[in-house]
């Protein structure tokens, strides 16, 4: 469907609103344009207003209505460019970068980035199987003194990854046994082969569980290690330090969901998949919801 694989392809092939709208229509309605209310194919197209009218239920709709692009005044070609840049940037794209590259206001760039992240986060997580690794990490904050609490102003994130598979990450308040068990058991297949963690007591009692003792400088024991999930944490922290510099705890879940989405689709066409999520009905979040009522 998409012939664009480079930034130059995007600039050449989707440089007008008409081309971008046709692209969105092919992605959203790959089986043919149908009424979003009743499913009828008996439609009338209003070329000036860029909307469709269903001749059976008289419902008006457009390719962006109800999607992440709902009520957006931003040109569609800037949506296309922002999505491509975010997908192809391994460490992520800050609002400041988007502001400069797309020539938009700071508020617009911030809202645009978070709308894309929100759409990426709406797919239900997969059930992980085979060998999985679990670990937690602290994100944010800064240790200003030797004797200060090292976890002050930091946010706790827990992650579980299937080797050569997907990762699931989540912000949590505590790393006690109840929290960690609930997280792990809700995201694994009952027939999981093995669960590998460090020696933290919160993981004790998990099924088919083995641990490496980092406090005793044991990093691996045969195939028992947590190197994969620790690699995910390294990528997350490089993103924060290299691209964003600072991430608000309020929106940290959106940033880690973006990381997980990119990781899970690392062998797929991320640009096409991201556009599909943007155009999925129900993936819209208003500015008020994002700023005033989020979490």
Fold and architecture overview:
By secondary structure, the chain is of the alpha+beta class. It has 10 helices and 10 strands. A hairpin with a 2-residue loop joins strand 9 and strand 10.
CATH top level class name of the domain at 131-247: Alpha Beta
Beta-strand residue percentage: 15-25%
Briefly note the structural class of the backbone.
alpha+beta
For the largest beta-sheet, the strand count, sense and barrel status come to:
5 strands, mixed
Topology-level CATH name of the domain at 131-247: Nucleotidyltransferase, domain 5
Q: Separation of termini?
A: 37 Å
Query: What's the helical proportion of residues?
Result: 25-40%
Main β-sheet, spatial strand arrangement: 6-5-4-7-8
Mean pLDDT: 93
Which second-level CATH architecture of the domain at 131-247 applies? 2-Layer Sandwich
Shape: elongated
Low-confidence blocks of residues? none
Helix/strand order: HHEEEHHHEEEHEEEEHHHH
Number of strands: 10
Number of helical segments with 4 or more residues: 10
Radius of gyration: 22 Å
Keywords:
Nucleotidyltransferase, domain 5, alpha+beta, 295 residues, 38% helix, elongated, three-stranded antiparallel beta sheet, five-stranded mixed beta sheet
Explain briefly what this protein structure is.
The chain has helices at 7-13, 17-28, 76-88, 95-102, 106-120, 177-187, 227-244, 252-264, 270-278, 287-291, and strands at 43-46, 51-54, 60-61, 131-139, 155-162, 167-172, 194-198, 209-212, 220-221, 224-225. With 295 residues, it is α+β, with helices and mostly antiparallel strands.
